């Protein structure tokens, strides 16, 4: 069972990574080649900690299919079946938990890890875990088939799931008492589903079943799209992981001589594939979903007795804030927590009063007439609403526009300065407020991967119409060059003799480079 992570904490962690990497970009780079993994050559910049992953692809020219939309990865709105995909995903993962196959799978993994330990290897260098990073032509086919037979009930269910229009777990977040403690074991279980799907895709490639491999790749992308419809950012991030896995498998698929050109199949998918808008809307309201009593706070004068009752009702809703404030759980010792909240109100009052007067321009006589608790909680929600929207508003722009214009450093410094100036009433904002930039960074990474794959397919299309030659530039393509989400322009492309190089821009700690050549 997963730990009770709240969406805001996960997003803030991503933001820390992003800020660190962006600060490091200006430092002098010392690049060191580290390892080969799944056909990738990986280099690490020792100064920044950033990774450059390079893969060489040997491509066969292929023009667009006839008809052009013969192949689809994600069903179009007419083809999609009205219904809830979550039911089929839960069946595909839930049956396994009740089946004797579960123990057999765990036994296979335990044996593989024991062998790895005995031979001084990492656990992912042997058995099923190692197959996930093994090129299709190097798979132990019979062993993989025997392993996948243990989950033979899954493919029909995943086919049904991929065809459905929506993903709905009926979470009813508005009615949950402690949203911060909401567990998502079913979302974590979906990781195992798409890892198993990756094995199925690689096996299909190894056996020359190209149509099957295309279908499985589409199911992976459909799973990612569905997870983008869930209420939590962690679900979205798992969906982005599914995109990454499917993309890596697809790089093997497009190198097969019999693989049709998938440019239009990729172009017809929703963009972004993992749409975070729903989860970000939940994030924006998280304070009020967790501490529902705060929805009542406004400028209407209320007597002191009302606020005494308000504090009593608020205490059970504090949830994870008790950990941040080093307090006992409200469920275990509500009286101690209530006493601490009363002390918090007293300590926060002077700064809260000055904030409402100086920054919110409320009349001094009105503020001074409010009970102490009303001043503190009104300042709390006003500060949160202001700075939440100062960050969230940028997510409504394309990533490259946000990246070039959003004054993140200035916003953060001003918010920190105001919080320090006005004191304790600003604490929930500083604990909760996620960075919208970090969420769109994760979304941009998956969009970039798909753009790189589309560019590969556009290159194969050009080669099919030009005697097997690589394009001199992306301007020579007969179809639009996919856009790099970091720049808003086509992906960087260089023709170097009989090779072409696609360079994705760095996002976070990672940058991808594909080296393309046409098969002889």
Can you give me a brief rundown of this structure?
Helix content is 53%, strand content 10%. The protein has 520 residues and is of the alpha+beta class. The two termini are 51 Å apart.
Please give a structural write-up.
With 520 residues, the protein is of the alpha+beta class. The protein has three domains: 15-69 and 447-520, no CATH class; 72-168 and 185-259, no CATH class; 286-434, no CATH class. Helix content is 53%, strand content 10%. It contains 21 helices and ten strands. The protein has helices spanning 7-24, 85-97, 100-118, 127-131, 141-148, 154-163, 185-206, 210-227, 233-253, 263-267, 277-284, 286-290, 304-314, 321-324, 334-358, 364-369, 372-392, 399-405, 408-422, 427-432, 436-465; strands spanning 31-37, 40-45, 51-59, 81-84, 164-166, 483-484, 489-490, 492-496, 499-503, 510-518. The strands form three sheets. It has a six-stranded mixed β-sheet with strand order 1-2-3-10-9-8, covered by helices on one side. It is globular and about 85 Å long. The chain starts with 6 loop residues before the first helix and ends with a strand.
């Amino acid at each position: 069972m997963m730990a009770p992570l709240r969406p805001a904490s996960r997003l803030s962690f991503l933001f820390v990574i992003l800020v660190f990497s962006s600060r490091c970009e200006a430092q002098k780079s010392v690049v060191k080649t580290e390892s080969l993994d799944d056909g990738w050559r990986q280099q690490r910049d020792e100064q920044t900690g950033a990774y450059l992953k390079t893969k060489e692809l040997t491509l066969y020219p292929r023009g667009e299919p006839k008809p052009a939309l013969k192949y689809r990865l994600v069903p179009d709105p007419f083809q999609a079946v009205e219904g809830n995909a979550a039911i089929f995903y839960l069946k595909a993962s839930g049956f396994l938990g009740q089946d004797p196959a579960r123990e057999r799978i765990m036994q296979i993994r335990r044996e593989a890890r024991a062998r790895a330990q005995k031979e001084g290897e990492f656990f992912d260098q042997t058995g099923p875990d190692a197959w996930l990073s093994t090129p299709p032509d190097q798979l132990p086919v019979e062993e993989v088939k025997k392993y996948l037979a243990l989950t033979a009930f899954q493919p029909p269910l995943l086919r049904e799931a991929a065809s459905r229009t929506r993903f709905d777990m009926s979470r009813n977040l508005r009615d949950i008492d402690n949203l911060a403690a909401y567990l998502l074991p079913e979302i974590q279980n979906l990781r195992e589903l798409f890892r198993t799907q990756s094995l199925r895709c690689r096996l299909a490639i190894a056996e020359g079943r190209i149509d099957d491999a295309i279908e499985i790749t589409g199911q992976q992308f459909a799973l990612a799209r569905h997870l983008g419809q869930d209420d939590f950012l962690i679900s979205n991030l798992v969906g982005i992981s599914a995109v990454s896995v499917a993309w890596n498998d697809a790089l093997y698929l497009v190198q097969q001589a019999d693989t049709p050109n998938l440019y239009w199949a990729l172009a017809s998918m929703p963009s972004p594939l993992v749409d975070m808008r729903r989860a970000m809307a939940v994030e924006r309201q998280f304070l009020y979903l967790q501490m529902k009593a705060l929805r009542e706070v406004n400028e209407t004068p209320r007597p002191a007795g009302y606020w005494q009752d308000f504090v009593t009702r608020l205490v059970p809703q504090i949830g994870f804030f008790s950990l941040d404030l080093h307090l006992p759980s409200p469920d275990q010792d509500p009286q101690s927590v209530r006493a601490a909240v009363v002390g918090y109100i007293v300590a926060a009052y002077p700064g809260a009063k000055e904030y409402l007067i100086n920054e919110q321009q409320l009349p001094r006589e009105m503020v001074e007439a409010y009970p102490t608790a009303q001043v503190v909680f009104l300042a709390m929600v006003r500060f949160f609403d202001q700075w939440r929207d100062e960050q969230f508003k940028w997510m409504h722009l394309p990533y490259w526009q946000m990246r070039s214009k959003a004054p993140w450093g200035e916003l953060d410094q001003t918010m920190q300065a105001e919080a320090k100036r006005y004191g304790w009433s600003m604490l929930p904002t500083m604990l909760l407020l996620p960075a919208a930039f970090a969420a769109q960074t994760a979304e941009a990474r998956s969009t970039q991967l798909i753009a790189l794959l589309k560019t590969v397919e556009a290159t194969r299309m050009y080669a099919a119409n030009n005697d097997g030659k690589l394009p001199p530039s992306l301007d020579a393509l007969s179809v639009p060059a996919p856009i790099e989400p970091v720049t808003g322009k086509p992906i960087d492309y260089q023709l170097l003799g009989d090779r072409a190089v696609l360079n994705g821009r760095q996002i976070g700690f990672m940058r991808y480079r594909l080296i393309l050549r046409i098969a002889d």
